[in-house]
Amino acid sequence: MPWDTDGVKAALEKRSLEAEPDTSTSDDIHVAAYKSYHTTTPNGYNLQISYVTTHDKQSTLLNAVKPKPTGGR
Question: How far apart are alpha carbons 61 and 40 in whole angstroms?
């Protein structure tokens, strides 16, 4: 079943939770390979709900989340 980008956001907002999009790139959440929303739970925890839109999930996630280089390299 495909990820319903707007439906997930609406479900969070229906529960009075803020839905902050995160695609790990500058791509719009509707077209990004890696789609997620961050919200804060009632207990104050950061919760991320995510979906990868390709069959090769491991390489998609690795390509979407590029670590920042550390000093000296």
Answer: 23
* Amino acid type, 3: W
User: pLDDT digit of tens for each residue in the chain (73 aa)?
Assistant: 578 999 999 999 999 999 999 988 888 988 888 889 999 988 999 999 988 766 555 555 555 555 555 565 5
d(CA 25, CA 52): 13
**Residue 33 near residue 64, CB atoms below 8 Å:** yes
Q: What distance separates the 2 farthest-apart alpha carbons in the chain? A: 47
Give the three-state DSSP class for 58: helix
Distance CA 70, CA 28 (A): 28
The C-alpha angle 50, 6, 62, rounded to 5 degrees, equals 25
Full-model pTM? 0.67
